[in-house]
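Section 5: illustrative case.
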């Protein structure tokens, strides 16, 4: 039975979600604050398979919760549930490490479908890990120099060290690799990776690039793989001169 943590401070909504998710066969726990959620997600607590996380919470907000989860190595699939639907808010959630984003008001069947989708992806990744395929047989792998990206495992390997990637980090890196050697605009990344077509603050893209450079580059201040193209955006180079 999959375990779902609902982080929602509106008691009636939290209990409604608990009732409906339990009716679907899930085991559900509820936290009404960000601090409470982080405590329930600590290393000493029983694990969860999915987190449904509201943004507007008393104390620390949902953006801070997901950021602290990811910084602490907690990569439980997380769906952000919020009334804030502006593209900048959506992108901020993805930037913090969310795997999906659903705005209020929402249809219950849509929420359940999103949760099932996250669980399917987790099950698939676990199956991939259990299979332990040789590196040369990896289904979705890209190698450059002493580095490799396992997109199916959401993992970057650099000289034997493994770094977990969020789904959005992996999607952005895949997009840049697919356009290897070509300048890609920030606007194109927003539209093609996140599907955001409105006027959105493109600085979030820069923050993603900074994080990816920390993983990939030997010297992030002097990148050789993720290059800035002034006035345009970025370019990925697999084998720099």
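Designed sequence:
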């Amino acid at each position: 039975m999959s375990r779902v943590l609902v982080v929602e401070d509106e008691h009636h909504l939290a209990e409604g979600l608990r009732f409906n998710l339990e009716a679907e066969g899930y085991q559900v726990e509820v936290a009404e604050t960000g601090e409470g959620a982080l405590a329930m997600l600590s290393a000493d607590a029983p694990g969860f398979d999915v987190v449904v996380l509201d943004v507007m919470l008393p104390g620390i907000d949902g953006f801070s919760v997901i950021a602290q989860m990811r910084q602490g190595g907690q990569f439980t699939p997380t769906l952000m549930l919020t009334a804030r639907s502006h593209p900048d808010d959506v992108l901020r959630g993805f930037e913090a490490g969310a795997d999906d984003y659903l705005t209020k008001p929402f249809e219950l069947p849509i929420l359940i479908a999103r949760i099932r989708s996250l669980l399917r992806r987790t099950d698939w990744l676990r199956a991939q890990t259990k299979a332990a395929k040789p590196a040369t047989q990896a289904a979705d792998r890209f190698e450059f120099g002493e580095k490799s990206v396992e997109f199916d495992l959401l993992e970057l390997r650099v000289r034997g060290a493994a770094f977990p990637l969020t789904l959005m980090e992996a999607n952005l890196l895949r997009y840049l690799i697919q356009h290897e050697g070509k300048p890609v605009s920030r606007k194109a990344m927003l539209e093609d990776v996140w599907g955001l077509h409105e006027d959105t603050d493109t600085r979030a893209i820069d923050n993603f690039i900074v994080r990816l450079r920390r993983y990939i580059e030997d010297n992030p201040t002097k990148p050789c793989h993720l290059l800035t193209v002034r006035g345009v955006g970025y370019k990925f180079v697999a084998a720099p001169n």
